Amino acid sequence: MSTKLPSDFVWGYATASYQIEGSVDVDGRLPSIWDTFSHREGATKDGGNGDVTTDSYRRWKEDVALLKQYGVKAYRFSVSWSRVIPLGGRDDPVNDAGIKHYRDLVEELVRNDITPFVTLYHWDLPQGLQDRYGGWLNKEEIVKDYVNYARLLFESYGDLVKNWITHNEPWCVSVLGHATGVFAPGHTGNTENWIVGHNLILAHAYAVKLYREQYKPSQGGQIGITLDLQWQLPWDDSPENIEAAQRGIDFKLGRFADPIYKGFYPDSVKELIGDRLPEFTEEELAVVKGSSDFFGLNTYTTQLVQDGGDNEIQGNVKYTFTRPDGTQLGTQAHVPWLQTYPEGFRSLLNYLWKTYQLPIYVTENGFAAKYENTRPVEEVVHDTDRIEYYEGYANALLRAVTEDGVPVKSYFAWSLLDNFEWADGYDTRFGVTYVDYSSQKRTPKDSAKFLTKWFNEHISS
Ligand code: GBH
């Protein structure tokens, strides 16, 4: 077997509209729920918001040039729904300036031999839809409006875009947006989360149905969803903790993956959530089951799982990075939720292949090195902890492909640029490119050079 990735392996960087674009009130764009949320007192670290961020709505050409310089094969970005249909709904006007912006971007990418991967929804719902009917809580309305939005994108870009991702991490929209309230729209409780998750699945599935019936035959692309999971490693080999790790997977990933790939919710979720978990009608289920051409995966770390605790939202499991012998799992990132543990990535890839039997597209993976926002740039560009991370994760992926036979088709590092890190504002930097937010100067960190070199050496010619 080859010791390299196949020649058609795709690597590149990922970003998201609200995190990089800025220009929030330019060319007809109206607010999204993230504009509203991030401007709320205390919602984000130091009051950060996406008003300016990396200014990529204006500097997109410079960003493409950077991608070219890095030698990537692909770029994953998301469309801001609020730019193309500012009020969001199926009877609301389409904004030509917004359509043109992404058309220009897509054309520039293709001219540079960079394959666009387009995410339809990376969390920035038009505020108009939140106000009008409660956004993701309203099944009848949101499914129709989302499908209408999807149609507009297939029509506008489908001649050039052959890789579509319906949703980015529906777990975050459901749980962080509607249960813990740390993300927009900031709702709390443990009822809405299950309705929102259900509606996200339906919106995804009906958009895929539309694409397959009306666009795929002529455009010939593929479409799927991106789910997120941190590998769930039992804290020790006790039967309770082994079972808890599976429950952790069910509550984070299985609640989306099992309906979409297998046609039912996991038993453990049904048992604990009871009638708060909506049911699919027969007709809906026929659309939901099998509604993704591939397995889109965002993953950053591994969590050690213990049974217990009374956090229903995560299936009554507890998380730690401290092993039974008191040692840490790996190198600590700037954010508390992330440590480096490449073996967990390899295990996760094997688990997904075994369980769902579809090609895997890694659509995000990355690391935030400590204190990059407060140390001088000359120091920050030598990001050794990020390089250690990428080296470990890239090699784990390589082994999953070449030794374990897992069909991984892509690897997108998060992120091309430092950018607006949601509730963490600008304190956390995930970029391989340092952004000076006062001058907008972009400076490659050593990790950018590392990834270029690694993929040049490990993809077959
Ligand atoms: C991805 O989310 C996002 O797609 C991307 O936009 C983001 O910039 C990137 O990761 C880096 O964070 O879960 O309550 O403990 C990854 C999912 C969601 C994981 C927030 C960490 C922290 C709060 N992340 N979560 S919590």
Automatic annotation (TrEMBL):
Which EC number(s) does UniProt give?
A: 3.2.1.21
Q: What GO molecular function terms would the record report?
A: cellobiose glucosidase activity
Q: Does the keyword field hold Hydrolase?
A: yes
Q: Does the keyword Hydrolase apply?
A: yes
The EC category is hydrolase
Q: Catalytic residues per the record?
A: 364
Coiled-coil stretches are: none
Entry's InterPro entries?
GH (IPR017853), GH_1_N_CS (IPR033132), Glyco_hydro_1 (IPR001360), Glyco_hydro_1_AS (IPR018120)
Output the Gene3D superfamilies linked to this UniProt entry. Answer: Glycosidases
Q: According to the lineage, what is the superkingdom?
A: Eukaryota
Task: Note one Pfam family from the annotation.
Answer: Glyco_hydro_1
Q: Which PROSITE patterns match?
A: GLYCOSYL_HYDROL_F1_1 (PS00572), GLYCOSYL_HYDROL_F1_2 (PS00653)
Q: Name one GO biological process term.
A: cellulose catabolic process
What are the entry keywords?
Carbohydrate metabolism, Cellulose degradation, Glycosidase, Hydrolase, Polysaccharide degradation
> What reactions does this protein catalyze?
Hydrolysis of terminal, non-reducing beta-D-glucosyl residues with release of beta-D-glucose
User: What is the similarity comment for this entry?
Assistant: Belongs to the glycosyl hydrolase 1 family.
Q: What does this protein do, in the record's words?
A: Plays an important role in cellulose degradation. Shows hydrolytic activity against several glycosidic compounds.
- The protein depicted here goes by the name beta-glucosidase
From which organism does this entry originate? Dichomitus squalens
